[in-house]
Amino acid sequence: MAKKKEFKAGLYAVVSGILIAVILTGLTLYAYTSRYTAFKPEKVAQFYVDTIVQNGDGYNAYKNTLVSKNAKYGDFVRNAYMRPYVNEKDENGEKIKQAEFVGTGSKEETKAIDEVYNTMYDYYCQLINQYGWDNYDEIYNQYFAKLVEVRKAVYGDDFMNYDYMFGALEANVATYGESLTGTDRVIASDNKTILVEESVGKYQEMFGTEQEVEAENVIDGKKQTVKEKKLVYRFTTTVKDCQELSEADAKKYIEEYKARITPIAESGEAKAEKFDLKDTESVKKILFIKKTEKDSAKSNMIEAFKKLDCSEDISSVAKVTCEVKLDDGKVVATQELYVVKIGKSWYVDNTNVDTTALYLAE
Predict the structure, then answer these.
(1) What is the pLDDT of residues 148-207, one digit of tens each?
(2) DSSP SS3 for 339
(3) Do the Cβ atoms of 1 and 109 come closer than 8 Å?
C-alpha cells in the first residue's frame, strides 16, 4: 500500500510542464462540460457540488455561479483582486527587474518557486479553514497580499504579474485537492524516472476500502504494470430534488438577492481608492509612430464589482438539493442551493449558499 506523505506544492514547479498540461486539460474539460450543463438547473447544481466535494475545489466551482455569468471568471479575479498587486513596470514605464535566476530553469529557481509555493500552500490551507470559499472576497484579498510579501522575501525583487499569481494559486488549489484524494504514481517519458510518488489522501483514509488494483511502477529500472493494494473510494453526486419557484416566490427571492448583492456591487469604488488605483493614459513614440497606452485599473475594478448585481436579469429561480454518496449507498453530504436563470443559462447563486458540508475532511 502507498505510504502517506507530506504534500509539497512546489512539486508543481519542478514538473511545470505537467502542471500546465493539467490546467489546460482541466479548462478544456470544463468549457466542454459547462456548455451542456448550463441549460438545466439540476445539471448546474450537480456540477457545482461535485466540483467541491471531489477535491475541495471551491475555487473552480465559481465557474458555475453568478460570479462567472459572462464566462469571464478569470477577468473578474484579475480586475477585482489581482490588479492592485501587479507590478511589471516602474513609474517610468521600464520593466521591473526580476531576480537573476528567473527563467534559467536552474536549481536556484526551482528552489525559490518551491519555497514560495509551499509557504503559500500553508497559508492557503489557513484561509480555507478560517473562511471557506463561500467568502472568496477574504481569501483573494489576503492570499494575494501575502503572495507579494512571500515572493519579495524569497526572490528579493518587486515583480508581480497575473501569470505568477494564477500559477501559485492554482498550484495550491491542485495540491489541496490531492491531499484529499491522494496521488497516483507518475512516471516520466523515459519509462524509468518516477516524477511523483503515489500517496494516500485524507478521503482514502476516511472512506476507502483496501483493494488490489493495477498500477504502474518502476521495477528493475523499467516501467511495468503491477498489482498493488490501495485504499479505494468513490463519491457520486446526484440531484435529489429540483423545484422551480412560483412567480411570486421567485420575485421575493430576487428582491432578497438584490439586498444581499447591492453592498458588494457598490464596494468597487471604495476598494479602488483604498489601493489608490487610477485610470491612466500615456503616449509612447516607437520610431515615427505614436502609440497610446491606457490602463483602466480603477474603472475595471469598479465595473467588476458592479457587474456582480444580476438582479435585473434573473427570470427564474429553482431550489435544488444534491446528495453525495459512497458506492455502498451511504450519504456523506447533502447540499441545498438555489440556481437562477439568466437568458437561457442557469447559475448557482453563490450569495446564498453554505458549502461547509462539502468539505468532508474538515
Answers:
(1) 999 999 999 999 999 999 999 999 999 999 999 999 999 999 999 998 889 999 999 999
(2) strand
(3) no
